Amino acid sequence: MIIRIFTFILTLLLFAGLTYTVLSLPKQTKGLGETVSLQMHNSGVSNPVTAVLMNFRAYDTLLEMGVLFIALLGVYSLSTSQKEKKPLLQSSVLKRLGGILVPLLLLLSAYLLWIGAHAPGGAFQAGSIVSATGILIFLSGWKLDLSARHFFVRLLIGTSLLVFLLISAVTLFLSHTLLEFPPSYASAFIFLLEAAATVSIGVTLFHLFLSIFSQPKEEH
Amino acid sequence: METLAVEKLFFDILLAASLLFIAYKTLTCKDLFQAIVFFIVFGLLISVAWGRLGAYDVAMAEVVIGAGLTGALLLSALVKLKKMNID
């Protein structure tokens, strides 16, 4: 009972604090929208979100890729050898549906990656659809070994970090500033980065899912 | 035009109310499987809310990751828990 009252008071304080913060926000904030729209012609893309994520603040995206990579390493260090071979769900409907959905999902992911330059979309959305496709393949029990024992799969996981570092080095040579793209090459650089990020995000998120299943059953 | 604004307001209020309700159900639900399903529904609804705010990028990411991937992860964790007989 005392704990409940204590929690209630804490929640009430948090609520009061948040309400105060919201009410004390300045009425007119200019934000950075104007700055972004002034620089859009230099960014190589026409979607402001992609311009910010992949060009103006590409450094943050580089670090995000690093975070994803390290998170997966952490999960790997906890999981043990990958044993489970048999499909989890024995459903012929799922199998048939998978055959139709997998190509469609891959197409959708490629579309989202491409359209990210002009409209909402981009690497993260496309990558998560890739990982959903991987989960579908895994659950419907296709004979497709996607575990990280293969060098190729590991390479895919590291792709985006490698490409990011490579492009960082190239931009350092071209414009003497890290990840500052020259306007004429910006769209090519951004597409390269986004394509690599899509692959890596897709495989990484899929492997987060896979590593839960891969532990041996008779643990205790 | 007037009626459209009223309809939008009604829709937004309905959306906000159902979000709060689903959030409450997710937290208080006794059955873990039900809680996960509520969580997925919450993810779907909140992506509609992002869409209403005009943030289509976030809405898309939320639908795939918040509802899809996290749901799948939670469900697989639940299967794992049941296999290990931990409640």
Provide tags for this entry.
heterodimer; A: 220 residues; mainly alpha; globular; B: 87 residues; 87% helix; elongated
Description:
The complex is a heterodimer of chains A (220) and B (87). With 220 residues, chain A is mainly α. Chain A has one domain (47-78, 87-213). Chain A is 71% helix and 0% strand. Chain A contains 8 helices and no strands. Chain A has helices spanning 2-23, 33-43, 48-56, 58-78, 92-115, 123-139, 151-175, 186-213. Chain A is globular, with a radius of gyration of 22 Å. The model of chain A has no long low-confidence stretch (mean pLDDT 84). By secondary structure, chain B is mainly alpha-helical. Chain B has one domain. Chain B is 87% helix and 0% strand. Chain B has 3 helices and no strands. Chain B has helices at 2-28, 32-52, 56-83. The model of chain B has no long low-confidence stretch (mean pLDDT 88). Classes of the chains: A mainly alpha (220), B mainly alpha (87).
